[in-house]
Specification:
The protein has 1213 residues and is an alpha+beta fold. 14% of the residues lie in helices and 23% in strands. Strands 3-2-42-41-40-39 form a 6-stranded mixed beta sheet. Strand 43 and strand 44 form a beta hairpin. The protein is elongated, with a radius of gyration of 39 Å. One of its GO terms (molecular function) is ubiquitin binding.
Length: 1213
């Protein structure tokens, strides 16, 4: 089986804030003969002190859009009396980060039993008569079908569901915010961050009592991470898909998670095991259907049902125990993007790209109601209510709404609010919609969008718990009800918008600052006393239509789920609104249009009248005009392009700035401001707040590239990408194909290089990346001494004792080590390169939970075994030689050290003293004897297998082969007499017979057993890469490469063992033997060289070629200077009458110069005597043939160049 291809990658560190500012050269700047980019420093401008202060306190941030959020309100920190909240975020940059929220919390009061009424949603939506009673008596219990596993787990589920309904609160929800102690603007501080994935993080969730973070990524992996571990640990891969992993769902009570992927499968993973095999794989009915990709996933807390959504426009229901489909919900007209399931598994809430939100009954498998207040695709849903009676929704336009029907007698009595608008800031680019919503106790809300920032909104409490003794005065400030206006309506007394007033005298939730779609103070003064509903202005409300209303327009027409879906906001463009209206009300032609039209203005122009006509979120004003706090993000790289010199790369970030990078040295050379890039743009596709248009990232890079790129022709040797928001360079086996002249890459005046010296870009980069690995291998494998003796080396055939001798500075094999000493790692593991923690990190307290074990319903229930006391009391101890405990190690043929990804060292293959009874293969202890009488098992007299005489066979077989040979023979019982009391014999000591097992060496062992000849500094000159450059070694897989090693340049000498395992053989051969794969055949360029005879005043030069030589052929990297040497040699020999050298030898520079007599003047340099032209353009001496053909000749015809004598010769020195 062929091994998978491996790829070497390195991530260049992000540019510092003091990177030089560059200015674009003017149009038409000459580039003839220039190989590198034209970089011009901009005028120095004084830096802002505030910017410098911000840079000094900069913390890690997201670089690209945040795709998912998860909220932990149960983990308590050391020294704190209660949890303070931790927010987790996963972004398109592959990062998973956590933030300390600093919010005061109290314990939740237990719910009263029976608070959840049966059939609440059915009664609200007009289906109360069709409620199915799921509770059956014992005599009505269905007959068993033989599925014992199903019966066991179903009964467990019912018991746990009953316990939950009786008041038991899950551990994760036992704390709530103390809103009276909350201070607006409380900052969220960085806690931890981990580079978990190499591609977008599409979803994250918390499990295992909020102690484990699970993440799904476009790299095809599902990983778990323990952020509260005492020692930071790397994330662990628990499973993979063959395509992007889009969504996750967890079963709280059974401790498993489900993952949905674009490979059209759903896989379940048990968090209690370390295997990477799924428990169950759920397959769609048609695995090849193009629209079977899983976009949304939900599972109930007790593991009874899984719901999935896809572009098929249906919701599929699955039984995770059997892996079978149990139902299909039809009604949506577009892709299902979000799914929620109630605590009791009775209701399902789905959000779709058809702009509708549907509520389903899982008992009857029908749609109960369709919410149509959104006009854009619904991307996210969130709810902490057990029955989903309070839920939040976010759409593609950036609007976030809340529907609250808790304790309402009718759906029309409920409340639908527009809470905030992410896209309200016109000065910023499009937020690309609401990717995720996280809500804490219906008081604080966090939104994640297409930008790298996370916003926190201070939202009003839900309707049932909103305080009623505060109202808003005319200026919008909160005052006690006795100071406010009286409610003019004979309805429930008006409640305040939120909670008691906070500091600074106002609430940011109802800010009076004018902004787009926000409530201004002038509007408040003009409002009538009836401009509030439930304490909030009517302008923030959206009318909920009751199905029991006789004038309800659409839902009353049909009870069918599919017909109900037809009236979603995105699919009723042609349905007349007046269909269900009263005759006195004049409707509009489309519900997508604003309800404030000329027809509506004809009605009473009051806030309540407008509310009665408002059914769309776009017509309402958001309650929160600005966020309470923003977790800022950094601009991330979104596109890159490698310039033609293959040394420099251009990147553009989310802010529009273009940076120039040296990818061989791993540094950023400078950046062009977004204003300069915008000025260089002619047309655009992105509109910014200043009204100007700027090019798309690809077009912006092309605009800068056109202005600064030089004229070089170099073979491609690497690839670049910016998927994680940083510049990543990838190298494969063909990375050794690019060669450049040393003076073109900054070594023009270096004494170690001349004008003809070349550097291989692949060799240069790889040597400097792994310089620590090379030096460590050279230390472990020193060259032979002058007398021919090879010193101790840590080859793959050496023992662990040699390694210890080497570490202690001793040689030979006479040093004895105890097993305890031998188990110590030789080196301490390097710092973790994946996890970054805050210097002010406060550790977390381990959760205190019940001792009941959460078992997976997918596994066979364990039946307790009743055994007598003492039976099964002693378990077999693990064999200490190997963690695998199934292979007997053979000294001398095992690895001395086994490297891991994070550089830690594990010991294997070491013999340890046994305890208790000996087994068959255990070596017996030798008794101490006189120095003159060596023990029979002493190896001091053994000369090895190459000795002259064969040692006699001992009476008692020893050694592995000896034991194997006597295996099965009758053995004499071992005497109970201690060996130490046996009288030593005076006979000649016998030496045991030893048989050497020949084990085939791996290619790496063969390589390390010989002499090493690593590349010299001439192959990879300094400067070296920055020490914080990240190195990745990946293996080809599906859908992308799988990372098998991750480390830093500064830690490669610590990770030597791990690198040996992860490196491809072609890389090891280059680093240790300076051998590279056979290069491709060099590319030749043919050309014709003729004299320039267009100047009548100049002396004509003779033809260099005869009739048999019509053209010349040379390497495409040949410089014009070498052609001048050829011209000079030919002309000099023709003038002296000697035989002219061959064309090949002359062009290649192997022909000696024509000898001169001692009295003749010194011969001038060829570039001082002659010059070469092409297309009437004088060619620079350092230009290559390939560059001449591509940038000067610009034709597919035969390249023609002319030579002539220079008119003025330089003064000879």
């Amino acid at each position: 089986m062929a091994q998978a291809r491996k790829r070497i990658s390195y991530i260049i560190p992000s540019a510092a804030d003091d990177v030089p500012k560059l200015q674009l050269p003017p149009h038409g700047s000459t580039k003839l003969g220039v190989t590198g980019p034209l970089l011009t420093l901009a005028n120095a401008s004084p830096r802002n002190n505030q910017v410098e202060a911000a840079a000094s306190t900069k913390q890690p941030r997201h670089r690209l859009g945040v795709a998912s959020l998860a909220l932990d309100s149960s983990t308590q920190l050391i020294g704190r009396n209660a949890p303070e909240g931790i927010l987790y975020s996963g972004g398109r940059d592959g990062l998973v980060m956590s933030w300390d929220l600093g919010i005061t919390m109290n314990r939740v009061k237990p719910r009263q039993a029976g608070s959840n009424k049966k059939g609440r949603w059915e009664n609200l939506t007009g289906w109360g008569d069709d409620v199915i009673d799921e509770e059956t008596d014992d005599d009505e219990r269905p007959i068993s079908d033989g599925d014992v596993l199903g019966e066991v787990t179903t009964n467990v589920k019912k018991r746990r569901r009953a316990a939950t309904l009786l008041g038991d609160i899950p551990f994760e929800r036992q704390w709530e915010t103390d809103i009276s102690q909350f201070q607006p603007g409380t900052p969220s501080l960085f806690r931890l961050g981990a580079q978990v994935h190499t591609d977008w993080v599409n979803d994250i969730l918390l499990c295992n009592y909020n102690q484990t973070v699970a993440s799904a990524s476009s790299d095809g992996t599902i990983k778990i991470w323990s952020p509260h571990a005492t020692i930071p640990v790397d994330p662990t891969t628990i499973g993979t898909h063959s395509d992007y992993v889009r969504c996750l769902a967890s079963c709280r009570e059974q401790n498993w998670i489900a993952s949905g992927s674009f490979d059209r499968t759903i896989k379940l993973w048990d968090l209690n095991t370390t295997t990477k095999k799924p428990l169950v794989t759920l397959n769609p009915p048609d695995a090849t259907a193009p629209k079977s990709s899983v976009y949304a996933l939900a599972a109930d807390p007790f593991g009874q049902v899984i719901a999935s959504g896809s572009p098929e426009r249906v919701i599929r229901l699955w039984d995770p125990r059997t892996g079978r489909r149990t139902g299909k919900l039809v009604g949506h007209t577009d892709n299902i993007r979000a799914i929620l399931i109630s605590e009791d598994s009775k209701y399902l809430l789905t959000g779709s790209a058809d702009a509708s939100i549907k509520l389903w009954s899982l008992a009857s498998q029908r749609c109960l109601h369709t919410f149509t207040h959104h006009t854009e695709s619904v991307w996210s849903l969130s709810s902490s209510h057990p029955s989903l009676e309070v839920f939040y929704s976010g759409d593609r336009s950036g609007l976030v709404c809340r529907v609250d029907v808790e304790d309402c007698p009718d759906l029309s009595e409920g409340e639908c609010l527009v809470l905030c608008n992410e896209a309200a800031d016109a000065q910023k680019a499009s937020a690309e919609g609401i990717n995720k919503i996280a809500v804490m106790d219906d008081n604080l809300l966090w939104t994640a969008s297409g930008t790298s920032t996370i916003r926190r909104w201070n939202i009003p409490q839900r309707r049932a718990t909103r305080p009623s003794h505060y109202v808003l005065d005319a200026d919008g400030d909160q005052v006690p009800r006795s100071m406010g206006r009286q409610n003019p309506f004979n309805e429930v007394p008006s409640e305040s918008s939120t909670r008691p007033p906070t500091s600074h005298g106002h609430s940011k939730r109802l800010s009076m600052a004018p902004s787009v779609q926000s409530i201004t103070s002038e509007q408040w003064r003009e409002r009538e006393p009836d401009a509030r509903r439930n304490g909030l202005p009517y302008d923030c409300h959206i009318r909920l239509i009751s199905p029991n209303d006789p004038f309800t327009p659409f839902v009353s027409l049909s009870r069918d789920a599919e017909v109900a879906t037809l009236y979603s906001a995105a699919s009723v463009m042609s349905v007349p609104r007046q269909l269900g209206r009263a005759p006195s009300q004049t409707g509009v032609s489309s519900p997508i249009q604003s309800s404030r039209t000329e027809e509506t203005i004809m009605m009473a122009n009051t806030a309540r009248a407008e509310y009665e006509e408002r059914e769309l979120a776009v017509d309402a004003l958001p309650v929160c005009s600005e966020p309470d706090f923003i977790i800022e993000g950094d601009p991330g790289l979104v596109r890159s392009i490698i310039l033609n010199d293959r040394v420099h790369t251009l990147t553009v970030d989310t802010s529009g700035e273009v940076a120039v990078w040296d990818i061989v040295r791993g540094i950023c050379l400078g950046r062009y401001l977004s204003e300069d890039v915008a000025a260089a743009s002619r047309t655009g596709s992105i509109r910014y707040g200043n009204g100007e248009k700027e090019k798309s990232p690809r077009e912006a890079l092309e605009a800068v590239r056109e202005r600064i790129e030089g004229e070089a022709v170099v073979s491609a040797w690497c690839m670049a990408d910016t998927k994680a928001g940083v510049l990543t360079i990838h190298l494969m086996e063909k990375c050794f194909d690019a060669e450049v002249y040393a003076d073109d890459v900054g070594f023009a005046n270096d004494r170690h290089f001349n004008e003809e010296s070349k550097l291989n870009l692949g060799k240069w980069a790889l040597r400097n990346l792994f310089i620590g690995f090379i030096r460590e291998q050279a230390r472990r494998n020193p060259p032979p001494a002058k007398d021919g003796h090879i010193g101790p080396s840590l080859s793959r055939t050496s023992s662990r004792e040699d390694a210890l001798n080497l570490q202690s500075g001793k040689s030979g094999r006479s040093v004895s080590r105890s097993p305890e000493y031998q188990r110590r790692p030789v080196r301490h593991p390097p710092p973790n390169s994946t996890v970054i923690s805050s210097p002010n990190l406060i550790p977390a307290v381990a959760p205190i939970v019940s001792s009941s074990v959460r078992s997976s319903p997918l596994l066979t229930p364990m039946i307790s075994l009743h055994t007598q006391k003492g039976i099964l009391a002693h378990t077999l101890p693990p064999i200490p030689q190997s963690p695998m405990s199934d292979v007997t190690p053979t000294p001398g043929h095992t690895r001395a050290r086994s490297g891991t990804v994070d550089g830690s060292v594990t010991l294997s293959g070491m013999m340890t003293p046994t305890t208790g009874r000996e087994d068959y293969f255990t070596q017996r202890a030798r008794p101490p004897g006189p120095a003159s009488s060596p023990a029979p098992d002493d190896f001091s007299g053994w000369k090895g297998p190459d000795g002259k005489g064969e040692p006699p066979t001992p009476s008692t077989p020893s050694g592995l082969m000896g034991r194997l040979r006597n295996f099965g023979r009758t053995k004499r019982p071992v005497s109970d007499t201690p060996l130490a009391l046996t009288t030593p014999t005076t006979e000649t000591p016998t030496i045991p017979e030893v048989f050497v097992i020949e084990v085939a060496k791996t290619p790496l062992q063969e390589l390390l057993s010989g002499n090493l000849s690593p590349p010299s500094s001439m192959e990879g000159p300094p400067p070296l890469f920055p020490q914080n450059t990240t190195i990745l070694i990946s293996e080809e897989g599906s859908p992308s490469y799988t990372t098998i090693y991750r480390g830093l340049v500064s830690h490669t000498h610590h990770d030597t063992d791990a690198l040996e395992t992860a490196m491809p053989m072609w890389l090891v051969e280059y680093l240790l033997l300076n051998q590279i794969p056979p290069p491709a055949a060099p590319i030749k360029v043919s050309f014709v060289l003729v004299p320039w005879n267009k100047d009548p005043d100049a002396e004509p030069l003779p033809e260099l070629l005869n009739t048999t030589q019509s053209k010349l052929t040379a390497s495409r990297n040949l410089r014009i200077r070498k052609i001048l040497n050829h011209v000079q040699d030919k002309l000099d020999r023709m003038s002296s009458g000697s035989r002219a050298p061959s064309v090949r030898s002359s062009v290649d520079g192997n022909s000696p110069h024509t000898p001169h007599s001692p009295n003749s003047p010194p011969r001038p340099r060829s570039e001082d005597a002659y010059e070469i032209l092409c297309n009437d353009t004088l060619l620079p001496y350092g230009m290559s043939l390939a560059a001449v053909r591509q940038y000067v000749w610009k034709s597919s015809a035969e390249l023609v160049m002319c030579y002539r004598r220079r008119k003025t010769l330089k003064t000879l020195t």
